[in-house]
Write a structure and sequence with these properties.
It is built from 8 helices and 9 strands. The protein is α/β, with parallel strands linked by helices. It has a single domain, classed as Fe-S hydro-lyase, tartrate dehydratase beta-type, catalytic domain (fumarase), CATH 3.20.130. It has a 5-stranded mixed barrel with strand order 2-3-6-7-9. A two-stranded antiparallel sheet has the order 4-5. Strand 1, helix 1 and strand 2 form a beta-alpha-beta unit.
């Protein structure tokens, strides 16, 4: 299995294709609905350097704060990504992200955005939240915690060997589209 170090380069991400299994090591940031909205209301200079050349993870983590003040991820499962479809490509472009992690895939607008920016959609394993949390070595920063709450805040984390699969690439490839076409063909066979 290949490893992708984060932050990364456009060249490294454009070399990835649908079906590639990877582990991620380095910095990534979580962000869901409220975070995407906040990022697009205006350009957030304080967050931009943390986003550039890394990935945003559609995740509402369960966290624990220890007596010494440091945070620990207890659960870090992916949330359904399609909710971000209307805005994801705008966030990718504005903040120079190299990818998105989530579950379920995204649509044509995001796929076109990945091609323009040199990005990928990475599928994380649903139902393995505690296992994925073990790959989070530390929390580096958190943005908008008080304003948005734990699940919607932007958590900057350092991960080691976080497992993902490329399911949408920068060349227009989408495993989600392939699966849908096969399912539609099979359905047509069954009802004819």
């Amino acid at each position: 299995m290949a490893e992708l170090k984060l932050p990364t380069t456009e060249e490294a991400v454009r070399a990835l294709t649908v079906g590639t299994h990877l582990t991620l090591t380095g910095r990534m940031i979580t962000g869901r609905d409220a975070a995407h909205k906040w990022l697009l209301e205006e350009y957030r200079e304080e967050v931009a350097p943390w986003l550039e050349d890394t990935v945003i993870y559609h995740c509402g983590p369960v966290v624990k704060q220890h007596d010494d003040g440091h945070w620990e991820f207890v659960a870090a499962g992916p949330t359904t990504s399609i909710r971000e479809e209307p805005v994801q490509s705008d966030v990718l472009e504005r903040y120079k992200l190299r990818g998105v992690i989530g579950k379920g895939g995204m649509g044509a607008k995001t796929l076109a955005g990945l091609a323009r920016t040199g990005g990928v959609y990475l599928h994380a394993i649903g139902g393995a939240a505690q296992v994925l949390a073990r790959a989070v070595e530390r929390v580096e920063r958190v943005f908008q915690l008080e304003e948005l709450g734990v699940p919607e805040a932007l958590w900057v984390v350092h991960v080691k060997e976080f497992p993902v699969v490329v399911t949408m690439d920068s060349h227009g490839g989408s495993l989600h589209d392939q699966v849908e076409k096969v399912a539609e063909a099979r359905f047509a066979e069954l009802v004819s």
